[in-house]
Amino acid sequence: MQSIGAASLRPDARSAAHSQPDLELVAVPRDESFKVWSHGYPYRTVRWHFHPEYEIHLITATTGKYFVGDFIGSFAPGNLVMIGPNLPHNWVSSVPHGEQVDERCLVLQFNADFIARAIEAFPEFRRVETLLDASRWGLLFAPETGAAAAPILREMLGAQGMRRVTLFIALLDLLVQSGEPAALASEAYRAEPARYAGTRINHVLTFIGKNLSQELRETELAELAGQSVSAFSRYFRRHTGVSFVRYVNQLRINLACQLLMSGELNITDICYQVGFNNLSNFNRQFLSLKDMSPSRWRSYQRLNAASAAGKSETPHGAQAPG
């Protein structure tokens, strides 16, 4: 993949990618430092979007056009790009309408706080600071770097524990050691997350986050977005990948888990504090998302805490793992 030629399309990018990007919500698991995943095509995140996290993106199948800031270029398998925080981007594959691709890319995402803590703890990590700083404009790596990164990213998909961290370090070392990558967006381009936040979906997501404990009706959110309920329902699912009700329930159950870990409130109080209006629905939704009841989930968390503290007691109602 050559970075020249594509750069000559940059003036067109200013008119072709003038629409406001959407915010992508990157959910890094609580017990992990970064997110590694893959997806096919079409897929809900294939749209003009941004997020606060750094992203390393490797194309494994299909060809097409990709957009990074004010840059437009062509991609093929082996296209390896690093995206800085809040930099809008998108890859659009040339796939006939109606066809599906099982795996289009491998994606690694991590936030600035995590990498800042790593740099503070390990001075050797400072070598990556130049790379991180340059990624604010997007970086395209040479094909040989993409080929070397592929097996590392693929192993990361299923790696557990310290092996994930080892592979993460190996990938960053590969990128640091590679030849100088090509900057994609122009030097004059600046990401403007404050302006992006004015888009319709981001207004809706912000409102939900601030009013999670209150009653949230899809009709009211549709009115906030200036859409009919049916149009809003399709719009919301396209941007989040789930229905409005499931999205709200997921956020409420995640908040409930935080309160359950604190141990200060009983389950009934937690149910109402996170926005459910009856205990049976709360228990049903919790079981659906966590595969266990809230009381059992809290018991296992207490077992985990006791183990970390060197205690041998098993909390009432919990079974010690075998």
From TrEMBL:
InterPro entries reported in the protein's UniProt record: AraC-bd (IPR003313), AraC_XylS_family_regulators (IPR050204), Homeodomain-like_sf (IPR009057), HTH-like (IPR037923), HTH_AraC (IPR018060), HTH_AraC-typ_CS (IPR018062)
GO molecular function, one term: DNA-binding transcription factor activity
Domain (HTH araC/xylS-type) ranges: 202-300
Keyword rRNA processing part of the UniProt annotation: no
Pfam families (UniProt xref): AraC_binding, HTH_18
UniProt keywords, alphabetically: Activator, DNA-binding, Transcription, Transcription regulation
PANTHER family (UniProt xref): HTH-TYPE TRANSCRIPTIONAL ACTIVATOR RHAS-RELATED (PTHR46796)
This protein's name: AraC-type DNA-binding protein
Species, as recorded: Paraburkholderia lycopersici
